């Protein structure tokens, strides 16, 4: 991710607000990031965080789908900034489908996330996503 990007910066501030226990401030910052996006990379990033503050699982799914669509568009345009991001939208889509009881779609997205884990760095973020994918696959392995 591009830490010097203003959208990434807004999302980082939103995550800090979440860490301080201020979800309302986080939501405002993520929505500002969405409103200020200027390309598909920024849209994918902002949508990823806006999804975290939706009132329903269906709305969360919509924002997670939006994040993946913009990530795919950025990748198709050759934007390398999105490369290491791909496992995360698939992980979140897996969780969204799981929350809605669509375990087949959840397994599909968790598997797609697993297939691109090699794009992640060997850092805290990479470990977090890897653990999330493994947990998701385990949760839905035998679900109906």
UniProtKB/TrEMBL annotation:
GO terms for molecular function: identical protein binding. SUPFAM superfamilies: TPR-like (SSF48452). InterPro entries: TPR-4, TPR-like_helical_dom_sf. It comes from the Bacteria. This is Uncharacterized protein.
